Amino acid sequence: MPYNSRTTVRVFIVATIIIYIIMLFLNSDGRGIYISQIQKKMQKIKTNIEADQSKPESGNEPPTVGESGGTLEQRNPMASVGGSRGTLKRRLPTAIIIGVGKCGTSALIHMLSMHPQIVEAPGEVEYFSRKLTYFSYGLEWYRKRMPLSYEDQITIEKTPQYFKIPGASNRIFEYNATIHLILIVKDPVERLISRYAHDKNVKNGKIKPFEELVIDSNGAVNIQDHQVMLGIYWRYLKDYLEVFQRDQILVVDGKKLVQNPVPVIEKVEKFLKVNESITTSQFYFNETKGFWCSVTFGCMGANKGLKHEDVRPEVISILRKFYAPHNKEFYKLTGINFKWPEK
Question: Where is the Sulfotransferase domain (predicted)?
């Protein structure tokens, strides 16, 4: 939505508040929209407006990044306003979801956004993954990409690129040596198939068959394929453990998040030291998409829950055997046995 003047913006905000208040009274049985969610929504709108007004001069603005920015932002709630909560302003994140892509990073931040003490940056900022571009803009540029928050709230951002980009771990450590990092993973074979479904959707089906991409001409796993190699999680996690303490990194099981989100979210809440506020009553299972959705904000976009490719069992077996020793190394580093299939 274009914003032509501050007056237009104010009118829009006031009108939206009135509409939501009316909706609140029409839903007084408690099943409607909560005050805190309304106010957090308005905070998001104000964030977008001020971010637009703070852009660099024409020609200096980096391109928009991330796959979920606008849509995710429109769905997210807003923390309650009022009381002695300090100053409402942009704060740098104290928690980051660093990856892994196609393991549930969007689902996780979508669910965390329902928490009144958590506010999330829209889209994927990629500040630490681009040393010569975004990172060079400095912390004030980064701060302006963050939402407005109160002192009792945590700002979190999600950029899966951070996990795999060389040097990202060092740049994050340089920024904040005590930051909380969240890594969500799943069976690397399942992740690889999920990534293929995503790429096929983005490219409108104009992509090589899955088997041709992941298996070379000799019948072995194609180690030249970037997405294949991304499934060797321990290599990337090792870079983070060289600078961060293990207890600064929460490793989340992406499959468990999809199957039963609340217990996983409770672990994240404990890790971030916020109240346990997200409950099962805030979710419903969407049979069509095959995953849990928010009662208030609905499901994520159409690019989530895509139909996966039918892969021959022989190919699955080759991939599992390839990843098996690497998975064991990952288990050692994390102290978690995910028990992913080995055959």
Answer: 94-295
326 among annotated binding-site residues: no
| Ligand-binding site membership of 231 (annotated) | no
256 is in an annotated binding site: no
Q: Residue 133: its pLDDT value, please?
A: 80
Report long-range pairs for 138-144 (Cβ below 8 Å, ≥24 apart): 139/92, 139/175, 141/56, 142/92, 143/90, 143/91, 143/92, 144/50, 144/51, 144/54, 144/90
Segment 129-155, tens digit of pLDDT: 987 788 999 999 999 999 999 999 999
Cα separation, 278 vs 269, in Å, equals 9
236 within 8 A of 249, measured Cβ to Cβ: no
Q: Does 306 carry a binding-site annotation?
A: yes
Q: Is 102 a catalytic residue?
A: yes
Which among 41, 102, 164, 186 is annotated as catalytic? 102
CA separation for the pair 103, 86 (Å, rounded): 36
Using alpha carbons, select from 115, 118, 126 the residue that is nearest to residue 67: 126
**pLDDT one-digit tens code per residue, 193-215:** 999 998 898 888 889 999 999 99
Residues 297-306: b if buried by 16+ CB within 10 A, e if exposed? bebbeeebbe
Residues of the chain predicted below pLDDT 50: 1-5, 8-9, 22-83
